[in-house]
Amino acid sequence: MNYLFLHAGREWSGTARAFAAAAHGLARRGHAVVFAVERDSTVERVISETATSPERSLLEVEPMDLRGIWIGAARRLARLARQHGSNVVLVDSDHEHLIAAIAYRVGSRARVIRRIRAGGRPLDIRGTGRIAARIAPTCYLFATEQDATAVPLPRGAVGRVIAPMGVAEALPQNATDLLGDEVNVVCVHDASSRSRAAAAIRTVAMLAPRHAGLHLTIVGDGGGGGTYDDDLKMQAAALGALGLVTFLGDRADHLEVMRRARLGWVVADSDTAVFGILDFMSLGIPVLAPERSVAEQYVLNDITGMLVPSDDAFMTAAAAAELLTSDSRREAMGAAARGRVTREGSEAAMVDGFEHAAAAVTARRKR
């Protein structure tokens, strides 16, 4: 099977990571994989750095200009699909979906698979996406059964397939600029979680007088060319907590940063949140995450971590203090978390889902 991944986002994110993991997994199983990305983007750089293994080339990376009018991008994609003999093209947004659907109509003949991001909501498929589904037969990929039932499919959808998100065992690099004993809480954030990241800083400021050495390390890409992190730094300074917080941004060695945490705090949303949760769980670190979010599908409250009200600083501070001061509770939760991700969070299951979706959409074509 020949797969073509299309990702128009310029910054690295959980969604880009999900596509990258699936693309590498499919390539290792012997499929031909092409990854089309925005030219001169962070995603192009990261994918290119991992496109070749010590044994062989895994992926072909194709920089593209996906901006401008739809038909121009669609024609470029159609030529790329014909050049590589792609059977399916995988997308994860309305914008990409319409480009792939038009490409199908102008001659690519590559069937479309649309992945819905974790924590799917009914509005994730808007008018553009529904038009695209009518132009080209589309199979939909979901991270969980709950997401699959929450999002109504457009008329004419080929079907829905579950591709559960998972993580592979990795050997992280050293984080040379961290003071190991001071990194007690590591927080994963993204551009959607400004208020929740600020609440984490407020909570640490509240806890610091009673917990010597408490330190908050924030990782993840906030976007906006650094403006996002600057705003959080100003809030930390206003609370007198600037010395308690380290902003690392997006890190290639994020697993090593996480490994040094006593507590993992995930304030991000969607795919970035899920990968943050699974990474902490795989390392045996209990997770603190907001209620009424995608975290509820992955964190078993009081078993693998704790779910707290995102707008209640006092309850959040109490939960964090309990986990930071009770070694036995933290170790029990960490062991349960590691066991759960080992049983249910393998990357292989996610790759299986992508294969099943490709089989489903191409089988319809044969019929």
Instruction: Give the C-level CATH assignment of the largest domain.
Output: Alpha Beta
User: Low-confidence stretches at least 5 residues in length (pLDDT < 50)?
Assistant: 170-180
Radius of gyration: 21 Å
| Topology order in helix (H) and strand (E) letters | EHEHEHEHEHEHEEHEHEHEHEEHHH
Q: According to CATH, what is the topology of the largest domain?
A: Rossmann fold
According to DSSP, the number of beta strands is 13
> Structural class of the helices, strands and pairings?
alpha/beta
CATH architecture of the largest domain: 3-Layer(aba) Sandwich
Mean pLDDT: 85
Task: Write out the CATH superfamily name of the largest domain.
Answer: Glycogen Phosphorylase B
Write structural notes for this entry:
The protein is α/β, with parallel strands linked by helices and 367 residues long. The protein has two domains: 2-166 and 346-366, Rossmann fold; 180-344, Rossmann fold (3-Layer(aba) Sandwich), CATH 3.40.50. 45% of the residues lie in helices and 17% in strands. The protein has 13 helices and 13 strands. The strands form two sheets. It has a seven-stranded parallel beta sheet with strand order 3-2-1-4-5-6-7, sandwiched between helices. Strand 5, helix 5 and strand 6 form a beta-alpha-beta unit. Helix 1 crosses helix 10 and helix 7 (194-207) crosses helix 11. The longest helix has 20 residues, at 347-366. It is elongated and about 65 Å long. 47% of the residues are buried.
